[in-house]
Amino acid sequence: MTMAIAPGLCSITFRALETDDVLDLAVKAGVEGIEWGADAHVPPGGGAAVEALAARCRDAGVDVVSYGSYLGMGPPSGDDAAAVDSVLDSVEALGAPMVRIWTEFGVTPESPADDRQRVTERTAVLADAIGARGRIAALEFHPGTLTHTAASALELLTTLDRVNLRTHWQPDPGLAARDALAELDVVTPWLAHVHTFSWGPAGIDERRALADGLDLWPAALALAERDGAALPGRRFALCEYVRDDDPDQFVDDVRTLRRWLAEAGATT
């Protein structure tokens, strides 16, 4: 039985583990795809080691869902042509169909118009460079950036109007479940994948078992499947950050996630 939304993992959840250990844990837990992070497991630059990791993923039956880059997050000087090409070399070596990018951290929906315009133009350049290599760009949906709110993310997406630009989504821990679902509803026509976790109001410092997100995640997964944008391959619920960084907790979280997907009838 193939789930329409598949369980996956963001590799940065286990930054302290080697790539092979992350892959082994993913297989043990039963996830079907990984977004490999650029900061710990798959550095920019491509090369034989990245190609070998891609081969091991294929052999294990685990899709490479996305490449989690940090393009766009820092100062504009970090996104010169050489840096972008280096990221895209790893994307190609992995065989990833998608590149996660950021909007500049510290420029928010409340920032001056000039700053927001600068970030919009910068995002356009990144999306076009990624599109030139035949890949989809997916925005990180994150507090402290221009994608902190669905309304601001929507404005950015519609202003740029790029055929290869999507957005990931994750819930703001400060929002009630109904409000988080309303945010997701706004961006689902541009949705790539969902970063899936259960945190308390303190955010990453209050990580909980995924089962504690019962009031949010079954409905969010159904909404994501109903109205998500077209993608190359399946849409994934990518587990990100688990309680106590515990591999056993991750295995339990994936068990919960698979049960919710099955109960929602998210099958093909």
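[next item in queue]
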Amino acid sequence: MEAPDSPSPYVVGNARQARLLTDPNSKRFFVPFLAHDCTVKEAAQQVDCPLNTMLYRVKTLLAAGLVQVVETRSRGGRAVRVYRSVHDAYFIPLAATPFDTLEHRAWVQGEATFRRLIAGYTTALQRNEHAGHLLYSSPDGVVADD
């Protein structure tokens, strides 16, 4: 599905690209370059990771054909490369992903979010002294299970 005013997405058919773009950890290192010019140092600052880690990830993205060098700047007598995603938008069909079904994709990609939601919900219950379980029947006979 295309977002309003978005560029036509490149349809990913390459399994390596699909894996890098659907894995939450790998995708995090790609995002600074998506439709933006960015140096390794700038990307490392955005992602909050060591420079060497980002450099390794950029080499992986280059090898997979997901980013390209768009400019070389001279800084302090040495060349600083500026990278950008090869395309400004990507669509990864389910068949190209490592997921068997949409449900499998939702579980894998949503696991961290689900854990944070559950942790937040539990904290709210404890703060409001609702850490127990309430089972009752209302006067009109409706059973509630909270």
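[queue empty]
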